[in-house]
Design a protein that fits this description.
Residues 84-146 form the Anoctamin dimerisation domain. It comes from Pycnonotus jocosus (Red-whiskered bulbul). It is a multi-pass membrane protein. The chain is an alpha+beta fold. Among the domains are: 8-120, no CATH class; 146-189 and 216-252 and 296-475 and 511-590, no CATH class. Helices cover 61% and strands 7% of the residues. The chain contains 25 helices and 16 strands. The protein has a four-stranded antiparallel sheet, with helices on both faces. Strands 5-7 form a two-stranded antiparallel ribbon. It is elongated, with a radius of gyration of 32 Å. The chain starts with 7 loop residues before the first strand and ends with a helix.
């Protein structure tokens, strides 16, 4: 019973007889017929060609990729090829069939001879299972039917969902740890000695924040800000940062085990991509010669130089954002509007973060084209090599796009802006912004929060709405049925394929990068959850909420809004694993730097053990960080201001001779004090210690958890043994 099963559908516009496009189309379809393909034509507003491959192609495929020991069996032992394999083989042959004009399907699509080529979503048992158990919102917290996904979309897509599910599951632990950290911070919300001192400092006069018409201000104005800072920036954060470094390693190690189990159960553990590609080429054309490996140092050098230039551009954009914030701050502070001038710093940071988000959106598009261009220069040998080199490039560009501004806020903000009477200026005019007196970590926290929340909410809404709306629009374009009147009764006998093909044609098209985009989004999110997590302990929680929604949104998109993806075989997540390992290492470095440089953790510890009242040994009952704030502010004499600075010397009716600013400098010549160097040395020592400890623990975890479970190893061992014994 061979009811009509079609592997692929080609869609083309109705061209005039004898036109160039019509001739090209006929040539292509003739080539397919020569290979034994069955072709069925249905005419509607477009021409639809159903394509079915002859059975002998799949027999060839099976016998080429069979284990050598099973070759002796008689030829009746061919089982049915799974649908995913059928589609994959047919897709390969369609893409690589050459017409007499030496054109392939892709060239014909560029010339608008064909408009689309896609496999069909069919009404089968498996689609119903997937729609019921996976592609709907009601099953948010149920386990995914990975086996069914694999049977319908192929191994590559199934591995993506298995990986995403595994990552989401392990995020629960990271999210709980993050919540615990914030909770620990909240318990000391009002009791922290440092923030108490800031709140009580109502006669500590601080130097003005801008040059023109800014008045002096009192330290205690920033009381709430200081409390919030100490909620994020306390001892618990250090423990949390180490925990996250270990978590990242354990996540990857456990995933490797999970993957080995899955790959063995699907029988792709020893599968070889290169062999598969060669087999397909030979089935398509028995005279095919493989393309040899090539490597050109000249090409690599050019690609490297261009990539570095692109990274420079991305860093330049981060600088532009810095300049924007400095200028905005100056303008807002002088603004007539009270709201603006009062919260100038917060507004400058917030608008800066929104601008940063906009640059991320624009630069993503640019990065995409640059990375594709660089890949073309490299001339990769196979499709998978092309994909790998593209992945690495786009990830590096995206990383700099997303993180350069965060890196500036974390490590440079407030460290390169000079001191009163000698400020570093942009174009000799605008002062660089400073950190808040209670520390720089809050600036980083705001920036991370704004970007993560915006990125996840807006991109998720767009990601779902755009396909949904375009699907609705494509459905609306249906033509009115004019011909039924003329034909009378005969219209009833409409071809059963026609409805199905039309329905599939109305769905949104998929391309090679559909799955790639999903990976990229999650990997960038993973970098946000691990690299600066010390400054934003809630990141894993946001990521967790996002992923639970993301899994089902991707499922709904794939099943209901998009044409069927061409199933591809894979035995792991490919180059993404190396990318994730690189992020894990960066996470150790990033968090070490955040605690050593951005946070106030080190200066407070140095003060406690070297300068505080406790060191004199006679005060037992008091907090050791008492007096820290006074100690961390330097004194500036008003008479030393730069000549063009307009400052109102009076404050609350008192003539002011000196003001305080955040730095360790001497009061007479403004050079660094000994304490500055003490803190500096402590920061370096902590950084080295933290990174070595964290990296050792990472290596230990990687060694302790074997990549491949014993069960899988034993299974492979038994198989090898049995094969050899049978051979004997």
């Amino acid at each position: 019973q061979n009811e009509e099963k079609w592997d692929f559908v080609l869609v083309s516009d109705i061209h005039e007889m004898g036109s160039e496009k019509e001739i090209k189309r006929k040539k292509f379809l003739d080539e397919l017929s020569k290979k034994g393909f069955t072709i069925k034509k249905i005419e509607d507003t477009k021409l639809f060609y159903g394509v079915r491959a002859p059975q002998h192609i799949f027999w060839k495929y099976q016998s080429l990729l069979r284990n050598p020991d099973s070759r002796q069996r008689d030829s009746t032992a061919y089982q049915d090829v799974p649908v995913t394999t059928r589609i994959r083989v047919v897709h390969f042959i369609l893409q690589n069939t050459v017409t007499s004009d030496l054109e392939k399907l892709q060239d014909l699509m560029k010339k608008k001879v064909f408009e689309a080529a896609f496999p069909l979503h069919k009404k089968e048992e498996i689609t119903e299972i997937l729609k019921k158990k996976w592609a709907r919102w009601r099953v948010l917290f149920k386990e995914q039917p990975i086996e069914e996904i694999r049977c319908y979309f192929g191994e590559k897509v199934a591995l993506y969902f298995a990986w995403l599910g595994w990552y989401t599951y392990l995020l629960i632990f990271a999210a709980l740890a993050g919540l615990a950290t914030v909770a620990a911070g909240a318990t000391v919300y009002s009791s922290s000695q440092v923030s108490k001192e800031i709140c009580d400092a109502n006669n500590t006069i601080m130097c003005p924040l801008c040059d023109q018409n800014c008045s002096f201000w009192v330290l205690s104005d920033t009381c709430t800000y200081a409390k919030v800072t100490h909620m994020i920036d306390n001892e618990a954060t250090v423990v949390f940062a180490i925990f996250m470094a270990i978590w990242a390693t354990v996540f990857l190690e456990l995933w490797k085990r999970e993957r080995a189990t899955v790959a063995t159960s699907w029988d792709v553990y020893g599968w070889d991509e290169e062999e598969e590609e060669l087999a397909l080429q030979l089935i398509n054309n028995s005279q095919h010669e493989p393309r040899p490996y090539q490597h050109s140092y000249l090409r690599s050098t050019i690609v490297l130089i261009l990539a570095v230039l692109m990274i420079m551009v991305l860093i330049g954009i981060a600088h532009a954002l810095v300049i924007y914030r400095a200028v905005a701050m100056a303008l807002f502070t002088q603004s007539e509007v009270n709201l603006l001038s009062k919260h100038a710093d917060t507004i400058a940071v917030m608008t800066g973060a929104v601008l940063h988000y906009i640059t991320i959106i624009i630069m993503t598009k640019v990065n995409w084209h640059v990375a594709l261009y660089l890949c073309k220069l490299e001339k990769p040998r196979t499709f998978s090599q092309h994909e790998n080199s593209f992945t690495v490039k786009i990830f590096i560009f995206q990383f700099f796009t997303n993180f350069s501004s965060l890196i500036y806020i974390a490590f440079f903000l407030g460290r390169i802006n000079g001191h009163p009477g000698h400020y570093v200026r942009i174009a000799g005019h605008w002062r660089l912004e400073e950190c808040h007196p209670s520390g720089c970590i809050t600036d980083l926290f705001i920036q991370m929060a704004v970007i993560m929340v915006l990125k996840q909410t807006i991109s998720n809404i767009m990601e779902y709405l755009v396909p949904w709306i375009s699907h609705q629009l494509r459905k609306k374009k249906k033509p009115p049925k004019k011909r039924s009147v003329m034909l009378g009764e005969e219209e009833e006998a409409e071809d059963p394929c026609k409805r199905q093909w039309l329905k599939n044609y109305e769905l949104n098209e998929v391309n090679v990068f559909s799955l790639f985009n999903e990976y990229l989004e999650i990997v960038i999110q993973y970098s946000f959850t691990t690299i600066f997590v010390a400054a934003f302990p809630l990141a894993p929680l946001l990521a967790l909420i996002n992923n639970v929604i993301e899994i089902h949104m991707d499922a709904i998109k794939m099943m209901r809004l998009r044409r069927r993806m061409v199933p591809r075989k894979a035995k792991d997540i490919g180059i993404w694993l190396q990318v994730l390992e690189a992020i894990g290492t960066l996470a150790v470095i990033g968090n070490g730097l955040v605690i050593a440089i951005t946070s106030d953790f080190i200066p407070v510890q140095v003060y406690k053990y070297m300068y505080s009242p406790c060191t004199r040994g006679n005060r037992t009952g008091m907090d050791c960080s008492t007096g820290y704030i006074n100690h961390s502010l330097s004194i500036f004499h008003i008479r030393d201001f730069e000549p063009h600075t307009k400052v109102l010397p009076e404050f609350n009716g008192v003539q002011i001779k000196e003001c305080r600013y955040r730095d360790y400098r001497n009061a007479d010549d403004y050079s660094y004090t000994v304490q500055f160097w003490h803190v500096f040395a402590a920061r370096l020592a902590f950084l080295i210690l933290f990174e070595h400890v964290a990296l050792c623990v990472k290596l230990l975890a990687a060694w302790y958890i074997p990549d491949v479970p014993q069960k899988v190893k034993n299974q492979i061992l038994t198989e090898k043994h049995n094969n050899l014994r049978n051979g004997l």
